[in-house]
Prior knowledge:
Blueprint: E1 27-28, H1 32-36, H2 51-61, E2 65-69, H3 76-89, E3 94-98, H4 101-115, E4 120-123, E5 128-129, E6 135-139, H5 140-153, E7 162-164, H6 176-185, E8 192-196, H7 202-213, E9 217-221, E10 229-234, E11 239-242, H8 259-264, H9 282-291, E12 297-300, H10 304-313, H11 323-339, H12 349-355, E13 357-360, H13 366-377, E14 383-386, E15 400-403, E16 407-409, E17 414-416, H14 419-426, E18 438-442, H15 450-456, H16 472-479, H17 484-491, H18 495-503, H19 517-533, H20 545-550, H21 558-566, H22 575-586, H23 603-625, H24 635-645, H25 650-657, H26 661-679, H27 686-699, H28 707-711
Parallel strand pairs: 1-11, 2-8, 2-9, 3-6, 3-7, 4-6, 7-8, 10-18, 12-14, 12-15, 13-14, 15-18
Antiparallel strand pairs: 4-5, 10-11, 16-17
Helix pairs in contact: 2-3, 5-6, 22-24, 22-26, 22-27, 24-25, 26-27
Amino acid sequence: MTDLHIRHRRHRPAPRHRRAMPNLSPGADSKLKKIFADIGTPEKHAFEPDPFQVEAIDVIRRGLDCLVTAPTGSGKTWIAEQAIRLMLEKKRKAWYASPLKALSNSKYSEFSELFGIQNTGILTGDRKENADASVIIGTTEILRNQLYDAMHRGADLDTDFVILDEAHFLGDPDRGVVWEETMIYLPARIPLLLLSATIGNGRRIAKWLESIRGKKCVVVEEFVRSVPLYPIFLHPSGTLFPLLAGGKDADGGKSRLYPRVAKAITGNKAQQLGYGRSLPPMIGVLEVLRKYRLLPSIFFLKSRSDCDGAVAMCAGMSMEEDPERNRLREQRIDDFTARFPHIAGHRQMKQLRRLAIGAHHSGQLPAWKMLIETLMTEGLLDAVFATSTVAAGVNFPARTILFLNSDRFNGREFIPLTATEFHQMTGRAGRRGMDNIGFAVVIPGKFMDIRLVAKLFYAEPTDVCSQIRIDFSMTLNLLLSHTPDQIRDLLDKSFAAYLMAASGKKHTVDLDTAADPRILWEDFLRHLDFLKKKAYVGDDNRLTEDGMWASQLRIDHPLMVAEGFRNNLFPTSDPAMLAGVMAAMVNEKESDDTSIDRSKISRSLIKSFQKLDSGLAPFAAEMRKKGFAAPTLFFLPAWSVYLWARGVPWDDALKTSQVAEGDLAMLIMRTADNLRHIRNIGRVFPDAAKTSEAAIELILRDPVISTQDADVISNGTD
């Protein structure tokens, strides 16, 4: 085993020690008494749609495209539900696309009840149920892939109406390209309903859609929140103050600070205000919120460790007794632990049961996050400590949200919150039909820019920019059905091209240089040349036989996987071994291979890993030399997933992996996604497809997914 290529993870500094926290003495400025008097539940009355909802339905009845932009929690889903009803009344089909599998699963449950389970299906990769139903819920990637297949077959997409939820994902740096491709490829005969949080350039997006689809796109805008929001400042003493004074600041905006707040953050004492790098005394903060009836609450924190630390800080807290609410929470938790036995032993289960608090972040298992979301939605929790990612696509509002930092981690660095991100987070404050008013509380600290947050409350929503980019999967799939000239026409339909043409300039302020249509075309040609060099495309610009099957690998690194199969580098007879080496291919994080107990490593896995790693090394080097991304393979992820596939207990696989259990679960689910795509090339590699199927069954089990969910995993293609 001495020839195992060992890779080191970069050193990370140890966390700083946190200093002791002072006690808080709950108090409130006199100006807040009138505001707090409005706290309560609105009177029950028959539902009456808002004018913007009525307007949107009228547009849909006329068969036009429609872009609805409205604050989070304002009732956009109701529009989607009514649109689907209209389709069903006419015996037509509807496709509802969302950005997240969790959100798709939630909508599937809701729509199954609304429209009947016989009329409702779901396609997420993980799940494939009732795929021919009149109403399909799925991820946007699946819808885009169906459009690829339809173009290849020369057929039309089998639906009559498409809803793109969270349409502002068009501007997401990592996944926005999928939304843009979907809008470009969707046949004009299929009306399109876009549902979005408020965005700054909705009308420009609509004009772009009109230019490429040849039909009118009506923008329906709502700017007023369904539940009014009031901003508050929590002084470290425990006293609540209004954050804003009303009127305008020196720049003409509405962000003038309340005098006592402005005084607190100005002068010599400002540096001592807050809690430095430490969390505030959470028990004290919750006592303040409870005294003034500001619960339930969502705390947006900087990191996973802060979320978990906040829960731990509350261990000695006493809670207000509510026997019926406690009984309902216990029952719901018992229901979940029966379905997901592993989470019964979760380290935060005691706080969840006894104190009605929990943490929600990407380091948690999907089942745990689902439990937290369910309890919060049903009003059975007092507080959730979450990272900012909970603001996007997950719907569990609270009466109050609390900010402890004015920036967020984008996967590479911490950057200031944008207006759109901020409004998504504040959109969780105030539960429609349950609250008269919602609150956003700002807590000072090392990472909190009070003046920035004050401006964000009334800032105009951020413009959405084009994020289209060329990759090998897109290139292969477009060449299935288009010539290069036709592909250039498609690229000329991009939002980036429209922005540039509309500006009349070479570059615009809301257009990334990388999305310049000329650069896009040059990048396409660069990808095409490489594919020709590697014989995935012939001199006639048509896909070769290898290019045909490689196009079905709609994954992050299709060429790396394709080369692996071309050169017989993958183990195609051992499901656990295939799962392991595929985990190394999909892993995106550095691992410390030196930490592995080498006396316990499977020699056969080492041999398979080395065969793949060394076999692909020249190809990966060539890709990088040409400016293309190629993954670095680490052994630790392969070893961890291999052990899991071999049936070792979850805790043992988790200990081996040296990552959070949510990260390991995500690695396993991404591995399963890649294995599904290998299953799709079974015509050429039948043994690999059969082994992939077996590998998926081995790795998708509790606690990654429940036993019941495993029973409905599709055996079909994606």
